[in-house]
Design brief:
With 865 residues, the protein is α+β, with helices and mostly antiparallel strands. Helices cover 36% and strands 16% of the residues. Strand 24 and strand 25 form a beta hairpin. 40% of the residues are buried. The structure holds one RNA strand of 88 nucleotides.
Length: 865
RNA sequence: GCCGGGAUGUUGGAAUUGGCAGACAAGCAGGACUUAAAAUCCUGUGGUCGAAUAGACCGUGAGGGUUCGAGUCCCUCUCCCGGCACCA
């Protein structure tokens, strides 16, 4: 008999499948009666290291789904592409002293070779890389559409900067101790103009639409928290006038969710970034020398801290009294104003009211600096006298003037109303979500297709002054003035190609290296035609991954006309008219590390595109499922430095691709983190080997003549068919595999027990997991002409078994089972009689009175005192 | 601290969603084959008491509760993993 040697036949089938175009995407329009399934895994960044066994897990998961749906008569879109722009690629290239333009294709080639070898059923005609101009011309075009609708603006934003390397840095290049990871020198911040996306305008819809998604609970929760909606009130505290001083603003605004505690305010705290502090720094407000120095010193220190350091290492609250005062809007009392770095400039109004009696943090702060603590909420649990901790619960107001006696809930409404009539406050909603910085001062990204004209800027001309298009969003004054003279590159000039340059390390000024390329920099103004400068910032890694799932439906390497030759609204609409019915993505599988950013950004783009009339749906991913991480055998992360990395190539060489695939599906529930085990992999290999040997051993001509099948085995087969059919769309791959193993254990005991037709059914359900072995038997032994992967998924026959077993309990404890004919399942007397025939049960019930509880077909329970 | 997920034999895990806990796999032990080893096959394998494949009791992180019946539901607590973190 032939031995199971996967290396002998696996590669052969790869060629056949390619030649026969087994995994080609069917045109959707041709068969409107068939359901579509768009099956997608988060596409990889192709690093030099090649595929990780963790990649194999997720891609096998989508592959099993895709194969299952394909065999079940659905039209399947199952593509793969490469997310190759971004910092990791650039840094890897710097290290290897290569240009990423050369390095990326090498990495892709290796990834692709490994994926093909694993038998993933991608339609490779749909492959693209985010770094090809043919792709990123659309990324740039989308940027321009978003700009035109007013979704982008420019603002000064601090970036991390390494004074020693003279380069701008990404947050991930900064170590937790505030030093640069490459040179270990301390970093600072530098303020540079950046493009920002107005994602906050979509906060409510991003929150609201979470309801319609079939996503893991945890992810939905994390997105909610990230958006962080909170409803409360804005309160204006007028500044106490100082003769001869003009403050930049009349009020210190604070945001609070507990306006009911307003009468308990004993101080205000502003962030070091607050405008009031700037007033002090610019000496608009004269303070005594020592006080000025103290504040300046405190603020300087805070600014130098990273957000990380400021929050992580500063457990003890610190602050400085500015000696300035504000006026309480309702009591007219004077309230001291402090500065403290626990208040963050970008959340709320960058200032808070301190209510020590009813907020834990404020309580701590007040104790340290001996601020008065004033109780304004009565709480039945709290005794009178000095508070030992803050009372944060809702209650009834006391010491609150006309509002005393109201409940917190009523008071929040009444006090807000009162403030509103006084023009000193209003109802307000804030979000944790911030606008999204979309500029990178880096080489390896899509060039931002914008041009700046000094001449037009001087004349205060914006894009909307010269175009009829209306913007959908209102700009604040400063935001608009920052856009004077900025115009998008003409759409017909796209792609704006990233130039090949030999030295692409970040520039000394913190600017992008593109700023040094004269030919790139120089442009003419789309409005007045005078010399202008190109934007030299590039887009972040997210840009390509925010819409790649929209591109797969229309993408074709062979037929380039599908993705159109020009970038224009008409071209986009033409593509979408044809291919949009593939969208949205039906099954999106990926790691939990993308729970927030990638998934939120993609949702945002889709909503904006839908508002622009460029898409007809509002959510990109109908179903999201998690894949758990694969750890090394020692339960640590796989890492070269630990020497515990498993290379898929080695595994395939020794056990074959089928065994690796099967093991990755069997190892644990798909979403669980799991440690690699070569021993357990060998178990899967043995299983496949036994399948091979069984199908080779049986004399199929003989079986065909033998009309008597083993009914028990047939029933077992049908149970297995059912189990696998139901488990796959529930992403319960591990139990699907287990049930097939169970079946094989039975089948081996009686290899003549199934007809050829039934034996083939088992092969078919195994096919998504082990595509090579099953194809080899399907065509080799059963002489089928067409691939097993294009065969029809087997229906299971409902076999109602004649007899069922019912557990018998006494006082809820399992004691025995009885067998009962299915026709008698409703007959309690019969079941009781059968149960009482058992010696053991008789013994337990001897001389006792009892009741009987019978749950039809499930259990009978005798209950006595 | 907050949010989310989890804790089941020696190990990974299963349990029809409230009805026979430990499927399937790994490991281990014993046996067969072999000069021997590997591979393969067979048998056993939660714990305690028992000669027992007789039977009994205990057993799903800990404690309590609901129920005829709890790994599954409720309350309290412990520990582990992931995310966020002075969020007003």
């Amino acid at each position: 008999m032939k031995k199971y040697q996967p290396e002998v036949f696996e590669e052969k089938w790869l060629d056949w499948w390619e030649k026969e175009e087994v995994y080609k995407t069917s045109p959707l329009a041709s068969e409107p009666e068939r359901k579509k399934q768009y099956v997608l895994s988060m596409f990889p960044y192709p690093s030099g290291a090649g595929l990780h066994v963790g990649h194999v897990r997720i891609y096998t998961g989508t592959d099993v789904l895709a194969r299952f749906f394909r065999m079940s008569g659905n039209l399947v879109l199952h593509p793969m592409g490469w997310d190759a722009f971004g910092l990791p690629a650039e840094n890897a290239a710097i290290k290897a002293k290569k240009n990423p333009l050369e390095m990326v294709p090498e990495n892709i080639a290796n990834f692709k070779r490994q994926m093909k070898r694993l038998g993933f059923s991608y339609d490779w005609d749909k492959e693209f890389t985010t770094t090809e101009p043919k792709y990123y011309r659309w990324t740039q075009w989308l940027f321009i559409q978003f700009f035109k609708m007013g979704l982008l603006y420019k603002n000064e934003v601090p970036v991390y900067y390494c004074p020693s390397c003279k380069t701008g840095l990404a947050e991930e290049e900064v170590l937790p101790d505030g030093t640069h990871e490459r040179c270990q020198q301390p970093i600072t911040r530098k303020t540079l103009p950046q493009w920002l996306f107005r994602i906050t305008s979509y906060a409510d819809r991003l929150l609201e639409d979470l309801k319609e998604l079939d996503w893991p609970e945890g992810i939905i929760e994390m997105q909610k928290n990230w958006i962080g909606k909170s409803v409360g009130a804005e309160v204006n505290f007028p500044l106490k006038k100082i003769p001869g001083v003009r403050f930049s603003y009349k009020f210190v605004k604070v945001f609070t969710t507990r306006v009911d505690t307003l009468f308990g305010v004993t101080a205000l705290v502003v962030a070091p970034e607050h405008w009031l502090i700037e007033d002090i720094e610019h000496q608009q407000v004269k303070l005594p020398k020592e006080k000025f120095a103290e504040i300046k010193d405190y603020v300087e220190k805070a600014k130098r801290k990273l957000d990380l350091t400021r929050t992580d290492l500063e457990k003890e609250k610190t602050g400085v009294d500015t000696t300035l005062k504000a006026i309480h809007p309702l009591t007219n009392e004077e309230i001291p104003i402090w500065v403290a770095d626990y208040v963050i400039g970008w959340y709320g109004e960058g200032a808070v009211m301190v209510v020590p009696a009813h907020d834990e943090r404020d309580f701590e702060f007040a104790r340290k600096y001996r601020l008065p603590i004033r109780k304004v909420i009565a709480n039945p649990e709290a005794k009178d006298g000095e508070l030992s901790q803050a009372l944060t619960k809702f209650g009834v107001l006391v010491n609150s003037g006309e509002f005393s006696g109201l409940t917190s809930k009523e008071a929040i409404e009444k006090i807000t109303e009162k403030l509103q009539t006084l023009n000193l406050g209003r109802k307000k909603t804030t979000y944790k979500l911030r606008d999204w910085i979309f500029s990178r001062q880096r080489y390896w990204g899509e060039p931002i297709p914008m041009v700046f004209c000094q001449n037009c800027a001087r004349k205060k001309i914006t894009y909307w002054d010269i175009q009829r298009e209306k913007k959908s969003f209102q700009f604040e004054n400063e935001e608009l003035s920052n856009l004077y003279g900025w115009f998008p590159v003409s759409e017909s000039d796209l792609p704006l190609k990233l130039p090949y340059i030999s030295s692409y390390e970040p520039a000394e000024t913190g600017e992008s290296p593109l700023s040094r390329i004269k030919e790139f920099l120089e442009a003419s103004c789309p409005n007045c035609g005078k010399p202008a400068k190109r934007e030299t910032d590039t887009m972040p890694n997210w840009a390509g991954s925010c819409w790649y799932f929209l591109a797969f439906p229309f993408w074709s390497k062979k037929d380039q006309s599908k993705s159109q030759e020009v970038t224009s609204k008409e071209a986009w609409k033409a593509m979408m008219n044809h291919y949009q019915s593939w969208l949205p993505v039906d099954w999106y599988l990926g790691g939990a590390e993308h729970a927030v950013l990638h998934l939120l950004y993609s949702r945002f783009w889709v909503k904006a595109l839908s508002d622009l009339g460029l898409l007809t749906f509002r959510e990109p991913f109908v179903r999201l499922r998690h894949v758990g991480m694969v750890l090394a055998e020692d339960h640590r992360k796989m890492s070269k430095s630990f020497g515990n990395v498993i290379n898929p190539d080695d595994v395939i060489k020794e056990y074959g691709a089928d065994a690796l695939r099967l093991y990755e599906m069997f190892m644990a529930p798909f979403s669980s983190e799991i440690a690699w085990s070569t021993k357990a992999l060998q178990g899967c290999y043995r299983f496949l080997k036994r399948v091979w040997e069984l199908y080779n051993r049986v004399n199929w001509d003989q079986v065909a003549k033998n009309s008597k099948e083993n009914l028990k085995l047939v029933a077992k087969l049908n149970r297995t068919l059912k189990k696998v059919t139901e488990d796959i769309p529930q992403i319960k791959f591990n139990t699907a595999v287990a049930s097939m193993m169970e079946f094989l254990n039975e089948y081996e005991k009686n290899p003549q027990g199934l007809s050829k037709a039934r034996a083939k059914k088992f092969l078919q359900i195994l096919a998504p997991f082990a595509p090579f072995l099953t194809e080899e038997i399907w065509r080799g032994i059963f002489k089928e002409k067409k691939s097993i992967h294009l065969s029809q998924w087997p229906e299971f026959e409902t076999v109602t078994e004649e007899e069922i077993e019912i557990p018998v309990q006494v006082n809820g404890k399992f004691r025995a089972t009885i067998k009962i004919h299915l026709s008698k399942i409703k007959n309690l007397n019969e079941i009781k009689r059968e149960s009482l025939k058992i010696e053991k049960i008789k013994r337990y019930l001897k001389g006792k009175e009892y009741e009987v509880i019978y749950i039809e077909g499930k259990v009978i329970n005798f209950v006595h005192q």
